[in-house]
């Protein structure tokens, strides 16, 4: 794992949240993308070297909608940049970590991603992401 790639924030109203973060950072989002398989729409901001991803549900049975119902809005996951996601998944499995995705899937922002189960990381949802070259 190299560095934090981005922080994901779950929001109820993506349009309102986008305006809030545009005001906070003083600049517009650089990307917005729907990940249909996940029932989620994402909006990405850059601030210095860091990235923030806003996540809004696009349907009621989306994991984000369920998350917000249970725990409210707020920080949802920490994503780490990895060089070789398959190797990292194998390494973590061998270390005893539980993975939500044992195989990488395509995520937003031109990435292959996999999530670790928060039960094996003390309550934090960790995303691995490898930039697609
Ligand atoms: Zn993410």
Instruction: Classify the beta-strand content into a percent band.
Output: 35-45%
Instruction: Give the mean pLDDT.
Output: 95
Through-space gap between termini: 17 Å
How many helical elements?
A: 3
Question: Within the largest sheet, what's the order of strands?
Answer: 2-3-4-1-5-8-7-6
Tell me which ligands are bound: zinc ion
Radius of gyration: 15 Å
Q: Extract low-pLDDT stretches.
A: none
> What does the overall shape look like?
globular
> Using DSSP, what is the number of strands?
8
- Order of H and E elements: EHEEEHEHEEE
Largest sheet: 8 strands, mixed
Relative helix content: 10-25%
Tell me the structural class. Answer: alpha+beta
What is the multimeric organization of the chains shown?
Answer: single chain
Structure description:
The protein is of the alpha+beta class and 133 residues long. Helices cover 23% and strands 40% of the residues. It has helices at residues 14-25, 63-71, 85-94, and strands at residues 3-11, 31-35, 40-47, 50-57, 74-81, 105-107, 111-116, 126-131. The protein starts with a strand and ends with a strand. The structure holds zinc ion. Residues 6, 8, 53, 77, 79, 127 line the site of zinc ion.
């Amino acid at each position: 794992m190299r560095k934090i790639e981005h922080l994901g924030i779950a929001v109820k109203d993506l349009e309102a949240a986008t305006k809030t973060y545009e005001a906070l950072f003083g600049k517009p989002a650089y990307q917005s993308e729907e990940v249909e398989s996940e029932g989620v729409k994402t909006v990405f901001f850059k601030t210095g070297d860091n990235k923030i991803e806003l996540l809004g549900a696009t349907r009621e049975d989306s994991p984000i909608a369920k998350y917000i119902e249970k725990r409210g809005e707020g920080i949802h996951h920490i994503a780490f940049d990895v060089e070789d996601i398959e190797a990292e998944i194998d390494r973590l499995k061998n270390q005893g970590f539980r993975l939500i995705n044992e195989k990488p899937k395509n995520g937003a922002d031109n990435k292959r991603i996999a999530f670790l189960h928060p039960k094996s990381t003390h309550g934090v949802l960790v995303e691995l992401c490898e930039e697609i070259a």
